[in-house]
Amino acid sequence: MNDKQVEKFIWDEIKKRDITIYDMIGLPGHSVDPTPEEEIIDEIRRSRANRFRERSGWARMKELLCEGDYNHYEDDTILKISVNDLFNFWWNRCVDQHLAFDEVLEDIYSYFTEQMRPPQKEKEPMDMDVNFDQLSLFENERRKAA
User: What's the predicted TM-score (pTM) here?
Assistant: First the structure.
């Protein structure tokens, strides 16, 4: 998918689930007034539960884009859009590339620096055996016993 297709797909999911800005910024489990601009006095009749169950933005995107029913206990949520397409969209539309580029180069530099390090020699395990006969602390005790 190209960036326009990814954006259209996400907008379609938002519209399909009837998500409003108040869902996006509201807390999960709290009520949302989907039309606060209406002058109907009875706000309680208009309010409904937030469409999202998750609190953070990244988890809400997983909830929005997941295949099937979303389960926040699963770490490997399968998304309807590939990670590559999401990454490209993020890179092209959401990131200040000039600032991120330095971080990318720093990570690449660190990767190659670690690759160039000589392998660590395995240290021999320390001898943890103690020979109490060699300790002078017990010399007086041995003399008394003899």
Answer: 0.66
